[in-house]
Specification:
The protein has 342 residues and is an alpha/beta fold. It is 40% helix and 17% strand. Strand 5, helix 6 and strand 6 form a beta-alpha-beta unit. The chain binds nicotinamide-adenine-dinucleotide (NAD) and uridine-5'-diphosphate-4-deoxy-4-fluoro-alpha-D-galactose. The site of nicotinamide-adenine-dinucleotide (NAD) has 26 residues, from helix 1, strand 2, helix 5 and strand 5.
């Protein structure tokens, strides 16, 4: 069965392609390398020991995308391609709306024209906005006013658009996957997260402090109503997240229509929990200071992952120690990410 993976050279996409190949799926990757490197694909091949087709293509380019569907018999699409930096989305919102929303429209139009109506979409816990209750369940209401940034709004708008698409044509099968905080790397240390410039997210920042590329972690606030005052999140190992996509394909194969699922562990860890675990597991010291709160941050965010367990038959397996160990293994083996490899 052939699966088209948009954004398959990226962080979550590359890990998902490894799992798909391992499970015997044929994989066709589409990426324009906006935020990724060809080396990631060479490593996906090395880890899985299997080859796959790759097209360097922008998903906004309907003609090229259409040719890919002409040339291949594609059963389902996993759609990762998009821009994801929250801060940047506030600076250049139209770029985000265009790439994320128009990109999804173009993709779905091409899919429909080729009779391919099975889609797994990368959504985000950010669609919940400031949580009304903890843990977050899929029945919690979401509304555009509650979402705090343009990036998050593109995700919510795409979710709504895909619901309308399904309402208009019940032949579609669509899984909207709301990721919590993906961290970690493949246990081989060959693929992992390779952010451009100074990382915005906690785990890559910690590992760059550990390797000496950055001097000090600033902990954004220690006066939140949490057990140690620092922000609490639902960190999920990227390989568990990747397995969630394989599970979603199984669900789609049963022709279940459209539904949405939290992909998280259901456990919340604070910033200082992560720092301490990283230090303990890896035998390193993280230089940090307590700084001011980051505007827009919430105190606590973690999932209720029961629905994914019951309906997708999926549950995260890896704990915080494995997340810290695998991040450090990747960082140590690739101090400059994929940079020196191409
Ligand atoms: P990533 O940037 O590593 O991967 C995205 C990939 O899509 C990149 O390889 C990029 O080059 C490609 N891409 C972007 N625009 C494209 C276009 N127009 N045409 C072709 N390729 C294009 O990001 P990631 O962390 O792997 O995230 C994957 C998806 O999951 C994104 O949609 C993101 O919004 C979503 N998501 C990520 C997180 C997270 O914390 N990483 C959380 C929730 C949701
Ligand atoms: N943090 C620090 N210092 C840093 C970076 C982060 O203390 O240098 C703290 C934050 O304040 C927060 C926690 O670490 O308490 C996690 O922050 P991240 O930036 O790693 O993650 P967020 O939860 O803020 O956001 C992430 C993604 C979003 C996504 C959201 C919900 O970046 O795209 O998870 O899934 F929408």
């Amino acid at each position: 069965m052939a699966i088209l993976v948009t954004g398959g050279a990226g962080y979550i996409g590359s890990h998902t392609c490894v799992e798909l190949l391992k499970d015997g799926y044929d994989v066709i990757i589409v990426d324009n390398f906006y935020n990724s490197k060809p080396e990631a694909l060479r490593r996906v091949k090395a880890i899985s020991g299997r080859d796959f087709k790759f097209y360097e293509c922008d998903i906004l380019d309907a003609e090229s995308l259409s040719k890919i569907f002409d040339e291949n018999k594609i059963d389902s699409v996993i759609h990762f391609a998009g821009y994801k930096a929250v801060g940047e989305s506030c600076q250049i919102p139209l770029t985000y709306y265009n790439n994320n929303i128009t990109g999804t429209i173009v993709l779905c139009e091409v899919m429909a024209a080729h009779g391919c109506k099975n889609l797994v979409f990368s959504s985000s816990a950010t669609v919940y906005g400031a949580p009304k209750k903890i843990p977050m369940t899929e029945t919690d209401p979401v509304d555009i006013e509650g979402v705090t940034n343009p990036y998050g709004r593109t995700k919510l708008i795409i979710e709504e658009m895909l619901k309308d698409l399904y309402r208009s044509d019940n032949e579609w099968n669509i899984a909207l996957l709301r990721y919590f905080n993906p961290i970690g790397a493949h246990e081989s240390g060959m693929i992992g997260e390779d952010p451009n410039g100074i990382p915005n997210n906690l785990m890559p920042y910690i590992s760059q402090v550990a390797i000496g590329k950055l001097e000090q972690l600033s902990v954004f606030g220690d006066d939140y109503p949490t057990h140690d005052g620092t922000g609490v999140r639902d960190y999920i190992h990227v390989v568990d997240l990747a397995r969630g996509h394989v599970a979603a394909l199984g669900w789609i194969g049963k022709k279940r229509g459209l539904d949405w699922f939290n992909l998280g562990t259901g456990v919340g860890y604070s910033v200082l929990d992560i720092v301490r675990s990283f230090e303990k597991v890896n035998g390193v010291t993280i230089n940090y200071k307590i700084g001011p709160r980051r505007p827009g941050d919430i105190a606590v965010c973690y999932s209720d992952p029961t629905k994914a367990k019951e309906q997708l038959g999926w549950q995260a397996q890896r704990g915080i120690d494995e997340m810290c160990r695998d991040t450090w293994n990747w960082q140590k083996k690739n101090p400059n990410g994929f940079d020196n490899a191409d």
